[in-house]
């Protein structure tokens, strides 16, 4: 059991993002903010996702920047335009500004890659939708990836997750990072929404109590498996249903990956219960596709 705990502690340190790359990414995000504010009617911008929630991991997490545009930038003839239209306008504008930099679309965001040593910046265009709930939390509309729009409430979710992380004495954040490492451990990333994953674990108190990271991960996989990765109704009560994936193909891939991970995590926990640390380490290495410290 001690050997397994040491391996997990080592892994949590290995997957920490480099401070230099993250700092450079944030500095580049400031340049992007200024450019978009000069080209469009912008209300505000904010860091969201793993950047704001401190759940980024090394080499796979971008700096997430949500830019809130005034509604006139997304309206035509009294109706909202396709979200693809706004994403395309943002991409074209940033292409014109950063001509020697890779600017591409990736689903709901525009990704700006400034070069080696800097984390990419994911620019997510948004428009204000309404205030909702007893706390009057702001809800925004962001691109869904298929031309439609979906709701998000990053400020309310961040407050909720910060409080839940305190209740877990910091284990929630680190468990999320371990799950993101699992997600990235295949040649093709396992598809699952970060906010779905974080709010699910937080709402179920998976990481609360005297639990090891092995316990937290095993319970997380079993929870995903038992729920069959269904959509999660927002525990904060402001953003409707938060889906784990966007397409049927992604759903099928996720279910298969979760079943596989849950099976081997259960085997690892059984080996630990028999003090067979060698077998436990072998099983966790299978879960992480060979990317787990020996």
Written overview of the protein:
The protein has ten helices and eleven strands. The protein has helices spanning 2-14, 19-39, 49-53, 83-97, 154-167, 171-183, 194-203, 213-227, 248-273, 277-287; strands at 42-47, 63-69, 75-76, 79-80, 102-106, 109-113, 121-132, 137-143, 149-152, 232-233, 241-242. A hairpin with a 4-residue loop joins strand 7 and strand 8. The protein is 49% helix and 18% strand. The chain is globular and about 65 Å long. It has one domain. 41% of the residues are buried.
Provide mean pLDDT, rounded: 89
Terminal CA distance reads 13 Å
How much of the sequence is in beta strands? 15-25%
What is the H/E string?
A: HHEHEEEHEEEEEHHHHEEHH
Radius of gyration: 20 Å
Number of helices: 10
The profile of the biggest β sheet is: 7 strands, mixed
The number of distinct β-strands equals 11
Shape: globular
Number of domains: 1
Low-confidence stretches: none
List keywords for this structure.
alpha+beta, 7-stranded mixed beta sheet, 294 residues
Compose a concise summary of this entry:
The protein is 49% helix and 18% strand. The protein has 294 residues and is of the alpha+beta class. The protein has one domain (2-287).
């Amino acid at each position: 059991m001690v050997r397994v705990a040491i391996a997990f502690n080592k892994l949590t340190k290995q997957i920490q993002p480099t401070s230099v790359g993250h700092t450079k990414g944030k500095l580049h995000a400031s340049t992007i903010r200024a450019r978009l504010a000069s080209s469009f009617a912008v209300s505000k911008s904010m860091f969201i996702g793993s950047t704001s929630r401190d759940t980024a991991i090394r080499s796979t997490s971008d700096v997430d920047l949500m830019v809130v545009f005034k509604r006139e930038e997304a309206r035509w003839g009294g109706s909202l335009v396709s979200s693809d239209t706004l994403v395309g306008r943002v991409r074209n504008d940033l292409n014109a500004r950063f001509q020697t930099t890779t600017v591409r679309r990736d689903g709901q965001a525009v990704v700006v890659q400034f070069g080696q040593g800097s984390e990419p910046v994911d620019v997510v265009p948004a428009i204000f939708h309404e205030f909702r709930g007893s706390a009057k939390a702001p809800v925004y509309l962001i691109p869904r990836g298929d031309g439609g729009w979906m709701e998000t409430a990053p400020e309310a979710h961040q407050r909720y997750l910060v409080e839940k992380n305190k209740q877990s004495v910091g284990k929630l954040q680190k468990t999320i990072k371990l799950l993101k490492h699992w997600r990235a451990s295949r040649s093709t990333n396992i598809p699952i929404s970060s906010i779905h994953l974080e709010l699910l674990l937080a709402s179920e108190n998976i990481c609360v109590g005297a639990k090891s990271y092995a316990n937290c991960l095993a319970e997380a996989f079993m929870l995903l498996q038992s729920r069959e990765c269904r959509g999660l109704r927002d525990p904060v009560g402001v953003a409707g249903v938060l889906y784990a994936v966007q397409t049927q193909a992604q759903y099928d891939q996720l279910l298969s990956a979760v079943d596989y991970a849950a099976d081997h995590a259960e085997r690892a926990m059984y080996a630990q219960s028999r003090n067979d640390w060698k077998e436990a380490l072998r099983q966790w290495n299978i879960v992480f596709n060979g990317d787990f410290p020996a």
